């Protein structure tokens, strides 16, 4: 492996929410943080060098996108995911969550319904409620330790008079599913049938483990290309969350115009200078780094899966098909608050409780395995020692 993902980098002096927010979140500062979804790995060296070079220039005036800014992203989607993106389809934003807010404002009115598949990434709830829209849950089915879509329930929810939008999470956070083509095709047929605009959060699309394959939503059919928006960012792929640069792919010209109109009425589509530099270089020269990262993450996943299956089989888990997040079922140990107390105060490990992703996640905990294997081993052993006699 060319890149050293075993290196432990001290993040505490860097205003890290993951590490510096531990005391506020868990009530103590000696907890191993494995919660918020950023990794503890340095970003690709080429990105770091490009940022240094830009910083050394010393002038940080108003930036503008050059004529070639979108090319690396377009080439990345074509070579990595086998799909064509045209430059005119792309709108820039500073982050996927904010970009989803814009879409909610652009295509719905207060009181309208937005469908989400729970348990799901918890900011979805906030951006729907805070904008006066109604959350409609299409809960995922959990059978034989596997998640699948409930299409019968989904059609009922999409057919409601005031349902205007559906938010898809693919790969799914927190359960780790990478939706298969047949699942997506069935989903898209229902959205088109009921004239519901699909918002596809594909921020984890590069973090998929073979033989699973990510399929961009706009590539599946012409109908869905005309009634969907797809949200991308280099933040999860290359550990660049703090630099704020993302891409929204909107093939339909009318939808794109409506989207831009909301941006212009509220804010600006200008990006941070360093975010622009990092995104361009990451997509240009980050392939080898990502390939090594995926191999390392797969090793971490295998370790956690084997460790708990062997030592604490009451914790049920599946290997994620995508993301660097694992979804652990602690329900055999009692109610969620009791388990959280043991994790924090006995194991001294900070996981995210499943209930924040929706009632359907209660009793599960999300573990971020995007860290050095040595940290992962320490955390796993701590959990084992805290739960082995229960």
From TrEMBL:
Which Pfam families does the annotation name?
Answer: Aminotran_1_2
Q: Which cofactor does it need?
A: pyridoxal 5'-phosphate
Which molecular-function annotation in GO is an example for this chain?
cysteine-S-conjugate beta-lyase activity
E.C. designation(s)? 4.4.1.13
Q: Which UniProt keywords apply?
A: Lyase, Pyridoxal phosphate
Which residue numbers delimit the Aminotransferase class I/classII large domain? 31-373
Q: Does the keyword Lyase apply?
A: yes
Q: What is this protein called?
A: cysteine-S-conjugate beta-lyase
Q: Which family does it belong to?
A: Belongs to the class-II pyridoxal-phosphate-dependent aminotransferase family. MalY/PatB cystathionine beta-lyase subfamily.
Q: Does the keyword Lyase apply?
A: yes
Top enzyme class: lyase
The parts of the chain that form a coiled coil are: none
